[in-house]
Amino acid sequence: MGLFSKKKEEPLVEKTFSVKGMMCSHCEMNVKSKLMDIPGVKEVSASSVLGKVCVEAVADVSDEMIKDAITAAGYTVVD
Questions:
Q1: Cα(76)–Cα(63) distance, rounded to whole angstroms?
Q2: Which of these, 13, 52, 51, 55, lies nearest to 33 by C-alpha position?
């Protein structure tokens, strides 16, 4: 193996959640920050206008982990 050999990439999954309570860009950043703290989360986009949060993560990041982080940030996930 060479110095620059690539580590095997895990396949990513994209999940979208409806979220109530986000009102502004500060809310979006708060949610993004909490979600990016979860190991395995690679990308997060949040829209207060649409009330949606999209998470790109490795497959072993569960929906419950994501929902718990959104709730911990002070928002409500709508099923």
A1: 14
A2: 55
Q: What is the mean pLDDT of each run of 10 residues along the chain (79 residues)?
A: 59 96 97 98 98 97 98 95
- 17 burial (CB, 10 Å; 0-12 / 13-18 / 19+) is buried
Q: How far, in whole angstroms, is CA 52 from its chain's centroid?
A: 11
Please compute Rg for the chain using Cα positions. Answer: 14
Q: Which pTM was predicted?
A: 0.85
How far is C-alpha 41 from the chain's CA centre? 6
- Extract the tokens encoding 54: 């999209």
